Amino acid sequence: MDKLYFDDIAEHTVAEFGSFEMTQDEIIRFAKAYDPQSFHTEPLPPPGSAFPKLIASGWNTAAATMRMLVENWIVKCHVFPSPGIDELRYVRPVFPGDILRVRLSVIAKRKSASKPDRGIVNCRVETLNQNGEVVLAFKSIEFLKVKPA
Questions:
Q1: Which residues make beta-bridge pairs with 51?
Q2: Where are the beta strands (DSSP E) in the chain?
Q3: Three-state SS for 8?
Q4: Per residue, what are the HEC states of 95-125?
Q5: 143 and 83 in contact (C-beta within 8 Å)?
Q6: Rounded Cα distance, 12 and 85, in Å
Q7: For residues 140 and 129, what is the distance between their CA atoms, to the nearest angstrom?
Q8: Per residue in 60-117, pLDDT tens?
Q9: Does the predicted TM-score (pTM) go above 0.90?
Q10: CATH number among 3.30.300.20, 3.40.190.10, 2.40.50.140, 3.10.129.10, domain 6-145
Q11: Which candidate, 90, 35, 34, places its Cα nearest to that of 62?
């Protein structure tokens, strides 16, 4: 399969892809390593906990989202390292057993003024659960290689 260049990406393109089951073990393992709050690490959080049920860390959800982006989108494009993301939001809690997928929407694109070998693609990334509800959202800035002449 040929990889996509900046020139191949159209504004307003929407793609949905990926499947990631957020298991109880995954939630607890990640949280113990990176976000050890009781509602992320305890199957039954203690009384008075900030959330009464086990939920995934937002960072865990973001990491799962990144994995789905790499496996289903980034691997298909001629990309340069990204300068980052904006407006990261944890919209809804993610529970054990939730099946996540990604919806990527290209909201704008332009050629780089300073680096003619690349273009800038602005995307809206949303992570959805099995009910189609948005659980995480952010804006992504991607640099893609311009198609050689």
A1: none
A2: 14-22, 79-90, 98-111, 118-128, 134-145
A3: helix
A4: CCCEEEEEEEEEEEEEECCCCCCEEEEEEEE
A5: yes
A6: 19
A7: 20
A8: 999 999 999 999 999 999 999 999 999 999 999 999 999 999 999 999 999 999 999 9
A9: yes
A10: 3.10.129.10
A11: 90
63, 31 in Cβ contact below 8 A? no
pLDDT digits (tens, 9 = 90+) for 5-40: 999 999 999 999 999 999 999 999 999 999 999 999
User: Are the C-beta atoms of residues 143 and 77 closer than 8 Å to each other?
Assistant: no
Distance of CA 8 to the CA centre of its chain: 22
Query: Burial code of 103-142, b = ≥16 C-beta within 10 A, e = fewer?
Result: bbbbeebeeeeeeeebbbbbbbbbbbbeeeeebbbbbbeb
CB 100 within 8 A of CB 127: yes
Token couple for 25: 């073990």
